[in-house]
Amino acid sequence: MFQQTATPSRVEMTSYGEVLDRFADRHTVTVAAGATCAYLGDERNLREFLVADEIARVLRRAGHIVSFLLIDDSLDPLNIRQLRVAVNKDPELIEKFSPWCGKPISQIPDPYNCHESFAEHFEEQLLARLNRLGANPTLVSTAKLYERGRYAPFVRTVLERHDEIVAYLEQTFPAYRPDKLFWPLCPRCRFLDGTRLTGTRNGCAQFSCDRCNSTEEVPFDEVEGKLNWKLDCAVRWVLLGVDIEPFGKSYLEPTAGSFFVAKAIAQRFFGMSKQGVTPFQYGAVGMERQWSMKLIDGLPSEMLRSMMVSRPATDFNISRDQIVSQASRHQVEPDLNYLDFVRQVLPMWLLTPENLSARQRDLVAHGVSFSDTFLNSPARLHLPTRTEVEGEKPEVLRGVHALLARTIELRTEEGKTTREEFEPLIKDSMKVLGALKGPCLHRLRTLVGQQQGLPVARFLLSLPIGYLRTVEFLLELSLRHPHQSLSQGELPTLKKAA
Question: What is the pTM of this model?
Answer without folding.
Answer: 0.83
